[in-house]
Amino acid sequence: MDVWDNLALGLETALTPTNLLFALIGVALGTAVGVLPGIGPTATMAMLLPITFGFEAVTSLIMLAGIYYGAQYGGSTTAILINLPGESSAAVTAIDGHEMAKNGRAGPALATAALGSFFAGTVGTIVLALGAVPISRLALEFGPAEYFSLVVLGLIASITLASGSTVKALAMIVLGLLLGTVGQDIATGTPRFTFGQRELFGGLNFVSLAVGMFGVAEILRNLEGTMTRSVVVEKVKNLWLTKTDFRRITGPVLRGTGLGSALGILPGAGHVLASFVSYSVEKRVSKRPEEFGKGAIEGVAAPESANNAAAQTSFIPLLTLGLPANSIMALLIGAFIIQGITPGPNVITDEPALVWGLIVSMWIGNFFLVLLNLPLIGLWVKMLTIPYGVLFPAIIAFASIGTYSISLNAYHVYAIAFFGILGYVLIKLGCEPAPLLLGFVLGPLLERYLRRALTISQGDATVFLTRPLSLALLLLAAAAFVIAVLPAVRRKREVVFEEE
Amino acid sequence: MRQGHSYDAAAHPRLGRTRPLIGLAAATLTLAACGGGGGGDDAAAAYPDGDITFVVPFSAGGPTDTVTRLIAEPMSEELGQPIVVQNVEGAGGTIAAGEVAAAEPDGYTVLMHHIGMSTAPSLYNNLPYAPLEDFKTVGLVTEVPMTIVARQDFEPQTFEEMVEYVKANADTVTLANAGVGAASQLCGLLLQDALGVKLTEVPYEGTGPALTDLVAGEVDLMCDQTTNTTGQIQAGEIKAYAVTTAERVESLPDLPTTEEAGLPELQVGVWHGLYVPAETPDEIVQELTGALQVALQDQNVIDQLAELGAAPSSQEEATPEAHTERLSSQIDLWQPIIEEAGVSAD
Questions:
Q1: Which of A77, A314, A370, B216 could form a cystine bridge with A140, CB 3.0-4.6 A?
Q2: Whole-angstrom distance between the N-terminal and C-terminal Cα of chain B?
Q3: pLDDT digit string (tens) for A387-442?
Q4: Domain boundaries, given as residue ranges, for chain B
Q5: Is A251 part of the contact surface with chain B (CB cutoff 8 Å)?
Q6: What is the CATH superfamily name and number for domain B5-143+269-341?
Q7: Which of B1, B7, B18 sits opposite A328 (nearest CB)?
Q8: Which residues of chain A lie closer than 8 angstroms to B209, CB-CB?
């Protein structure tokens, strides 16, 4: 069967009224949980998994997948409006997206996120349809050594996330790496930095950290001023993109989509890296790097596109090889099993209607997302005119409820308070939270792949240099590092980027 | 067990109920039932009269969760009461077990647990419960077989060749597992014990990534449940040497058992059983055992378990006696192996 037959089969499956309805329900639910900080897509999917048992396999997967990318989208809304990122990709969007909102440009920021995501989702779906099978083999070229080098490159790239001093950015990355070591050692189970607290055995919770460092810290900073203002510093100018905006986002959306599609295929770390590697690239190629961190529309367009493209292509290892790229894909494997389908490389040949129906429904779901979200922009933006005195307690209440709901454990709510205060102190010291967050996310990956590569090579460290892909990535990382810390470059950076 | 931050603790809900919106209401009801039905003969005679909660110590969608939901349906029919499946994750299933051990012994809180029930006392230093003393067993449910698998281009072609090869090259062979206390780690320990070798163990943060590296040829060997490996074996992505249970597996008919292949001491399966708190009246346990036995004869349960490469436990196994016997012998089996290997989960 060629691609067109496959797509025709997929269309036939995805366009049945039931499947259309559940794609819509999936993305609507996904958007809703994405908007609420804390309740992530995995939690929602795990909760809803049992009710899909009675559905047909393809319907069940269509709805679960809809929740997944719906949540990817919804997460950026809260990140832009109130600086509350629910996951690492949204944390990147928050950097410039929330600045745009404060400048009265929340409308264009949300529209950029919607359009960029839709475009990227479309391309990602096409990549999935045309190249899934050959591409999946490429992903297997990435072993522990390659992932280690990729994560090193990612860490170096994250220096550019900060608009302030390079030294402080480096310090934040290292602090993030250290926070990432909290919890049980994966190899031996030895607790590290847990101080005997059982809650810390599983490591610190990303949502607590992100909500505290971004949202709560920002609120604390705002409390210094007068309480009568609303979040929007300037008047809301317009809701839609101007011609200039369109011109400015074209390149970033294209590059973000390309990078995201490529990185999404790598099950070990790709999806995590997609959004901020693309942000970092945009800042490098931009003619106005000084605007990044102060509300550059490119800083929203690129990571949003990259994230959504990666969300689509991360299905490739699952659909073609039966290998889950992350816990969400693992949940989908569970859904396969419950439906009586043995997950594995044979699914794509044994169940073509299921696989292609799912792929086509992803595009339909992305289309629904745009339909659903563009009209909502006006409503979202109005939210920003709510006075501080009302909005802030509401944000904190929702963030606490969301975080508590993850594990029904108040510990994570206290953690928000802790990281909120820490975040405030760091803001006062001129340190930005984004590099810390990425250090925190990438730290465990760095350690995991370093140890795994060395274990497999029986302690031979040259494995990172003798494997060509790994060597290439490390050289790239070295080049990026030199550029980032060259004294001359740094001096220029400080003059241009230093926050007032 | 530790997982990646992007998708770890943050991602897992404690309540994975059938209808999430009704979840809170159901929780309230369950609490009320627990509070009100504090043992006594009257309560036992009226049992079951209200929602029964099945606590699963692992995430929704995982193999244990699947098994639980499979048997919950026919058991609920037999008992005439709804069964709510609740996922309480964390610390290798010990958090869920601890909660059930401390629950009201009225038969409304039931624990589903697997082989981990017998290894936890050896893996955890400060376990808040004792598997044999703090629970009554209801009966065994099923045993998921494990397979010994290798990367596709691993030299040995048969189980016998693999045994020889591993013995001769013990210092270079790598053995993947899904983390501390995972079934794959236990099976790996038993394999090394049976062969009298010490291999380089490569821990992963779950079965998915371990299997990915095995398919990619990064690691040599692994031992994991048929649930996880069957698809890859059938597609020829990985090589399988043997299945570790007494009987061959229906979905992989050509795969010999370890006994046939000449290593009968390598027998391990992920067995599952139901537990209630120790003070639960025997009449209530009998009710549950009876319902379990009926459920295990349900055709849908048999078919679905076959998909997982497993079969329901026999009627004799689905009894408190056989279950207690299994639990106690497994505790004795694993204790020296885990101690020898120096593995600890806390």
A1: B216
A2: 10
A3: 878 888 888 888 888 788 766 678 888 999 999 999 999 999 999 888 898 899 89
A4: 5-143+269-341, 145-243
A5: no
A6: Bordetella uptake gene, domain 1 (3.40.190.150)
A7: B7
A8: 267-268
